[in-house]
Amino acid sequence: IMLHSTLALSLLLIAVSSNLAMAIKKEKRAPQTLSRGTIYLLYVPLMVIHHLEDCQYCQALKKAFAENEEIQEMAQNNFIMLNLMHETTDKNLSPDGQYVPRIMFVDPSLTVRADITGRYSNRLYTYEPQDIPFLIENMKKALRLIQTEL
């Protein structure tokens, strides 16, 4: 219940205010009303990136993320991106601990996808710069799951 209320409020605010959120059609901007934002969220996965400014691993991943054209295209056109620079006390957003960088995929039911994880068993949601191809595959997996589960 805590996850639903916290994430629902966050997601609605993001849908309304985010310049990164793009509609399914590339030319169309995200809806600007709260009610339309809710409908929009039903079809777009959320990618939550936990990072800190003074973290060298976060900065290295951010650089690799920014330099990859395929990731940038998917991030701009197919996802709502949420960058969290402060650690949350919500256990739903840190199911296996509080570490950075951490990238989690959240589906339209506001559930963190435990089936979309990185390569490391001790930090399920972390990615390193060399894991960019794996992250791309996970982004594609998130998109496929959204399409097949709706």
TrEMBL record:
SUPFAM superfamilies associated with the record: Thioredoxin-like
Annotated signal peptide: 1-23
InterPro entries linked to this entry: AGR/TXD, Thioredoxin-like_sf
GO CC field: endoplasmic reticulum
Keywords: Signal
Keyword Signal: yes
GO molecular function terms listed in the Swiss-Prot or TrEMBL record: dystroglycan binding
Ranges that cross the membrane: none
UniProt KW Transmembrane keyword: no
Gene3D superfamilies: Glutaredoxin
Similarity-based family: Belongs to the AGR family.
Name used for this protein in its record: AGR3 protein
